[in-house]
Structures are given as structure tokens and as C-alpha cells.
Amino acid sequence: MPALRRQDVLVFTASLPVLALGVAPVWLAGESMWRIPCLVALVLMHLPLLVRSRLPWVTFAATAVGALVLLTSPALPPSATHLPGALPPVLLPSAALFGVAIYSVAAHARTYRPLAALIGVAGAVELTAALWNGLPWLLVPSIPEAWRVAVGLGGALLVALAYACGRWRALAAAHGDLTARWSYASEENHHQHLDLAVTQQQARMAGEVQRAVAAHLEDILDQAREGRRAARRAPGLAADALAGITTSGEEALGRVQSLLSLLDAPDPTRSSTTNPSSPSSPPSTPSRRSRSSSTSRASSTRPAGRASPSPSR
């Protein structure tokens, strides 16, 4: 069973006074074989309002059946309606819910929406034809033809207005949904461009640090060779070479650590909220260990033409 929506419950609650206005004269009409069918028809026209947005065609069918029962029922006596003349049950206030049913189909149904409007127009014609003789001349007793025409035009106007309002509601909802989807797509496209820019920047930084580390390693190797040669001539000069090697190694290590700290920094472009209904997964970022290992492997690669010195025999 579909869950009830708050707006449907509010519409049903607002229709309860209208239901009371329809039930009272039917009940006061006295014992009749049409009393129970009319009461059931009135309830049948009001109760489906609870699911009108989720099951619009069910609401329309129930309202149409209820209106048909009221149309075929005999007129209510003046003693029940407190009016100068008899009143057909189809002119009770609950009959206006047929327009609400047409609105629900036009606004919430996905297929065959014009069919509801056609049935509504046919119902207005049938109402005018059924009430052509024996209408309660309450408003314009001197011009009964105008009263007949007013009933037909009023029914057709109710159908047209309900259908137009329903279609406007459906188009407004579709426009809002398209606007939200377009905004989300634009935001995702913007995030993708930012991710691409960040990836390219990280690649450039990694290349720069790799070149810097390679240069420092070359310097370290040169100083190591000089230190070995100096140690053969004067052992005291080896300390200066070792100090230079230490300085170059610390500088290269600092370059690598600065790169890793930048790569591990949180991405500020992903701090903004995205659509919760379809969240996009952020691009995976390699771990610190994998980055450090790849950086160390890349930095340990020596340029061509510079082979490591063979150990002295």
C-alpha cells in the first residue's frame, strides 16, 4: 500500500466539511432505496483523495463512479435541502471533487492524461442533458434557459480549469527537476575539471621533485667520488666530502617530504555539498606509502651516461 502524502491528507481533511454538507441532506431525505447508494457514492468521492497524487487514476475512477451514482439518483426533496425546490444529488457540493480528480490525473498521471479531460467534458454534457428538464430554478427562475446553459458551461469550465491547472503543476515540477539536474551536472562537470587540474598540478610537482632529487643524487655521487679520492691522498679531507653528502641528502629528503605533504593535503574542491540522491565518489588518491615508494623508485633512477662507480678493489 502506498504511503500517504502530507498534501493529500490535508486535501482530504479540507474536504470533510464538504462531505458533511452532502451527507446531511441525503440523510434527511428520509427512508429511500437511494439513501445508501448516495451515501456510499459521497464517501467514494472523498476517500480516494488520500492517494490522489500517488494513484491519480484510482481517484478519478472512484470519483467518476460516485458522480454517476449521484447523477442517476432521484432529486432530494425541499424538506431535506431547505431550498425552494428539489435538488438533484449531482448538484451537491461533493460533485466539485470531480474537478479535483481531473486535476490529479493531469498533474500526477504519466499516461492517457487527455482521456480524463475528454471524460470530464462528456460528463458535463451528460449532466446538462440529464438536468435539462426538471432543473431547480433557484437562481434565475424567470429565465430557465440561462440556468441550463450555465450548468453546462460551468461543468465544462470546471473540467478545463482543472486540467489546465494540473498540467501547469506537472510542467512546473518537471522544470524544477530539470533545473536541479542541470545544476548538479554543472557542479559535477566543474568538479571534474578541478580534479583534472589538481592531477596535472600534482604530476608537474612530482616531475619537478624527481628532477631535483636526481640532481641531488648526482651531486652526492660526485661528492662521494671526490671523497674517496681525497681519502687516499689526505684522510682529513674526507670529512668535508661527507658533510656535503649529508647536506645534499637532507635537501633531497626535504624536497620529497614537501611533495608528500602537498599530495596528502585535503582537496578543498570536494568540501562543497553534492546531490545526496546520487553522490559521486571522489577520485581515488594513492596512499602515502605507494607515493613515497614510487617517488623513491623514480628518484633513484640515474640519468643515462652516469653509471655508479665500481667499488675499489
UniProtKB/TrEMBL annotation:
<feature type="transmembrane region" description="Helical">
    <location>
        <begin position="58"/>
        <end position="76"/>
    </location>
</feature>
<feature type="compositionally biased region" description="Low complexity">
    <location>
        <begin position="292"/>
        <end position="313"/>
    </location>
</feature>
<feature type="transmembrane region" description="Helical">
    <location>
        <begin position="82"/>
        <end position="103"/>
    </location>
</feature>
<keyword id="KW-0472">Membrane</keyword>
<keyword id="KW-0812">Transmembrane</keyword>
<feature type="compositionally biased region" description="Low complexity">
    <location>
        <begin position="268"/>
        <end position="278"/>
    </location>
</feature>
<feature type="transmembrane region" description="Helical">
    <location>
        <begin position="115"/>
        <end position="135"/>
    </location>
</feature>
<feature type="transmembrane region" description="Helical">
    <location>
        <begin position="147"/>
        <end position="165"/>
    </location>
</feature>
<feature type="region of interest" description="Disordered">
    <location>
        <begin position="263"/>
        <end position="313"/>
    </location>
</feature>
<dbReference type="GO" id="GO:0016301">
    <property type="term" value="F:kinase activity"/>
</dbReference>
<keyword id="KW-0418">Kinase</keyword>
<keyword id="KW-0808">Transferase</keyword>
<feature type="transmembrane region" description="Helical">
    <location>
        <begin position="34"/>
        <end position="51"/>
    </location>
</feature>
<protein>
    <submittedName>
        <fullName>Putative two-component histidine kinase</fullName>
    </submittedName>
</protein>
<feature type="transmembrane region" description="Helical">
    <location>
        <begin position="9"/>
        <end position="28"/>
    </location>
</feature>
<keyword id="KW-1133">Transmembrane helix</keyword>
